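Dear Dr. H.,

I hope your travels went smoothly. While you were away I took the liberty of generating a structure for the chain from your last submission, since the lab meeting agenda had it listed for discussion. I wanted you to have the full record in hand beforehand rather than looking at slides cold. The sequence, exactly as received, is reproduced here:
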Amino acid sequence: MKYFLVCLFSLTLVFGHEESWYLERISSHLIIGDLDGALHDNARGLAVYPASNELQAMMIRVLSARGDSGKALDLWKVRHLDNPYDPKGDFSLVESLAWGVLRGGGEGSEMHRLMALIGAYLTQDHRAVDALIDQLHSTNGMLRAQAARMASGYRDGKLQKELFNRLLREKNWFVRLELITSIGHLHIIRARAKLKEIIANDRTAVEERAVAITALVEMTESLEEDELDELCTSNRAGLRSLACSLAMHFHQVGALDRIVKMLGDSSPDVRVMALNTIHLLDAPLQPEQQKAILSLFNDLHPQVAITAAWVGFNLDVDLAQSALKQWINQGDASTARFAAGVLAVSGRNGLKLCYELMKKHNDPLVRAGLALGLIRNHDHIKEAQEALGDLLSSGEEQLMFDQGYNPLIRVLESNEVRHIPHIHNYPQVVDSLTRLELLNTLSVSGAVEAKELIAGFLKTKMHIIIGSAAQVLIEEGDLEVIDEIRSLVDHPDERIAIQAALVMAFVAKESGMVGRLLAAYDRANWEMRLTILEALGHLGAREVVPFLLAKMNEPFRLIRIISASSLVQCLYH
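The corresponding predicted structure, in token form, is as follows:
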């Protein structure tokens, strides 16, 4: 008996175990994260059973889990040399291959890591959480900021804890803004005390305080009277501004007396917030309260005086119009544009003055801002369309909507945003998004020149705001201009036609664009090829899986990473 067991043991060493034994051991290694052990046992199994489909498939999974996507793809090619892709049988294997490429992308250059991060985020898979956490600890500020921004899309407890811990020690201003914004979206309650500390700190930048106030309001579920009183009487201007924001958010009409008292606050920012709150509460005002608002028409700070005129339209129309007309005609450029923006949202009582000033003013941005008010109210539409069209066709300066004077008023202004490290071409992105919104306004209003302006925009500007990165930055909107863009997919100018097809893919998600995009790929330049690959993933068309698999074998790492991201999106669609 002893001799028999010795012989059996020797045969086992020579011929190996059953195939199932290797598969079970490899699976166990993968479950506990022992990738080296999995690779070792997989290699042993293939040495004994080299033709085993199961062990070959397992080796692809092991190599992909290790981030060794090159070898995994080589093995896939050998395994499928004569066999086409099977959507059902090969689903999990192709998924492993794609994630292997994304994992490997996290170790390359800054651009490779960024695209791998965006690719993982767009999959909406739980494995993206680990990628986000890894990049929150990156030494690169751009990657930390992008990871913080994307984290708001995942309600994962571990990720939320990392966001809060990162905020406690983060020094980079841009990253802090993204962290605070995501913390607000995710309602991370443990961060309330830290946000209050940021708001109360006199050394906090204006932008960071505004973001912190928004985040704190967003996560606040109820407001106690005692808490509001404490904020209203705080010796910190930031906390007094927070009191106004909370009163607006919860529509605390009972707080009106306390808010009116803040019209005499020493901080102009608090006075503006108090005026905004009074306007939105829309409660009956006592004569003394009305007098307090009208007195601010002569405030030394333009943002306060102009905001007071806006609120004062309900009290004394003639006086409010006179004040705004003076600011538009005699103020500096930025002040005039702010006053024009206020007049444009002052309702029908301000339309006659809107039209009068739009016809006479020399500043095209003031004229366009007033034109927006006329178009919204269906008044003098043709002349307003001309003013807006003149601004868009000139293309002489970059544009933006600015809310710096008053968070409730969007002012059409010269683009003064700075380059920021985590958003490529940020000033150009802001300009393009602003122009797209203005084009949408023209299209909705039925402007005859809209189609020509849209074609020019597609040719020169649209490429800046399409692609996966743009999808992370902006939400899809209900754009009427889409109907105009759809009509341009057959434009004789191929650049306009392909840009139109990309917009229809990214914004409208029209699956009919797949064929057009595939046909354009080989003729496209490098950047356009990357965008086409991203668009295919956004469409989520299963029929492009073989095409994307082929692109994952290309020698260019960025092509492989974007193809892998799009592939996962197609599989999950």
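Two observations you may find useful: The chain has a mean pLDDT of 87. The chain is about 70% helix and 0% strand.

With kind regards,
E. W.
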